[in-house]
Design goal:
Strand order of the largest sheet: 9-8-10-11-7-12-13-14-15
CATH superfamily of the largest domain: Dihydrodipicolinate Reductase, domain 2
CATH architecture of the largest domain: 2-Layer Sandwich
Largest sheet: 9 strands, mixed
Strand content: 25-35%
Shape: globular
CATH class of the largest domain: Alpha Beta
Number of helices: 10
CATH topology of the largest domain: Dihydrodipicolinate Reductase, domain 2
Number of domains: 2
Radius of gyration: 20 Å
Helix content: 25-40%
Structural class: alpha/beta
Distance between the termini: 42 Å
Length: 331
């Protein structure tokens, strides 16, 4: 890859908790320079500027794009992701967006098409791919250690729920716990398995214990889904907000094959600490333990590729594949 010089000029649109963490990771990597910050809360934007002395604080996406950016990091409410991404891409600016990239497969396809047309790098913060444990498991699975994978079990129960009102508006969020949490695990499963096509999907969605009959009726706080892949693999997903799970969170991605099994799971209810193990009958092999500073790796990976001149990547089509599966879960 060709290394560009000077470092790419980045703007940050939205610098709340997530945006600030992404900024910290990229600044510490020294792979890019932050030249502009925009957030609707002036105090939040001002605080973020303490990480990037010399950056300019502006009040809109258009103002950010006037700063001569090479890349834009988006951490705004989900309803705006697709439109903001397309606006930047059409101006020739690469994009790294907080998940979900969009609220539907149609919106996702629109963003990916814009990135392809502009020949610009597109990244999404699907951060669990960058944990040491999942990378170890994927390498072993691709190497044949587990044989043919015939079953995958995905779980993400969050004892709490989002603290922003827009998360509970179907039009703004696009969905509830599936869009917020399930997306991570569906992406992980497809990423490990090589993005096979989905043959059929069945699902049940609930809001405060009440079954939901149609998308947009309310955001779901519990979901159970079964995805049958064309490879024959059965994928089960369960995810929730505000579930009485006895701990802060239950997070797991388990893979079962003809030669063995593997699991990636959180430790003692943590949102951040994970182990990864291989199984053969009752025997296990530990592949990864905490600590593992994985939180900002997806953003740093994107910034590094941008700094080396990487443009549109065909792998971005996989974002459409995951979005299509989520749409099928919503029915």
């Amino acid at each position: 890859m060709r290394k560009t010089s000077p470092r790419p000029r980045l703007g940050f649109l939205g610098v709340g908790w997530i945006g600030r963490n992404l900024m910290e990771a990229i600044v510490q990597s020294e792979m890019a320079q932050v030249v502009g910050v925009a957030d609707p809360v002036p105090a939040v934007a001002q605080e973020a500027q303490t990480l990037t002395p010399g950056s300019e604080r502006v009040d809109s996406l258009d103002a950010l794009l006037e700063l001569g950016l090479d890349g834009l990091v988006i951490a705004t409410p989900s309803a705006f992701h697709a439109e903001q991404s397309v606006s930047a891409l059409e101006r020739g600016v690469a994009v790294f967006c907080q998940k979900p990239l969009a609220r539907s497969v149609e919106e996702t396809r629109h963003v990916v098409n814009a990135a392809r047309a502009a020949d610009r790098l597109l990244g999404v913060d699907l951060s669990y791919r960058f944990t040491t444990g999942m990378r170890q498991l994927r390498e072993r699975i691709h190497g044949g250690s587990l044989g043919d994978i015939y079953a995958v079990n995905l779980v993400f129960h969050n004892a709490y729920g989002p603290d922003k009102a827009w998360f509970y508006d179907p039009k703004l969020a696009g969905g509830g716990c599936v869009m917020d949490l399930g997306i991570h695990l569906v992406d992980l499963a497809f990423w490990v398995l090589g993005f096979p096509a989905v043959r059929r999907v069945s699902s049940q969605l609930f809001a405060q214990g009440r079954p939901l009959r149609r998308r947009g009726e309310a955001v779901e706080d519990y979901a159970a889904a079964q995805l049958e892949l064309t490879s024959g693999t059965a994928v089960q997903l369960a995810c929730s907000w505000k579930l009485p799970a006895g701990c802060d969170a239950v997070i797991e991605a388990s893979f079962y094959g003809t030669k063995g099994g593997a699991t990636f799971r959180n430790v003692n209810g943590s949102f951040y600490d994970f182990t990864a193990d291989l199984f053969w009958g009752t025997r296990r092999e530990r592949l990864a333990d905490p600590p593992d500073a994985w939180g900002g790796r997806a953003a740093v990976d994107w910034a590094t590729r941008l700094a080396h001149g990487v443009r549109f990547e065909p792998e971005s089509e996989c974002l459409v594949h995951v979005a299509d599966a989520l749409d099928c879960i919503y029915g």
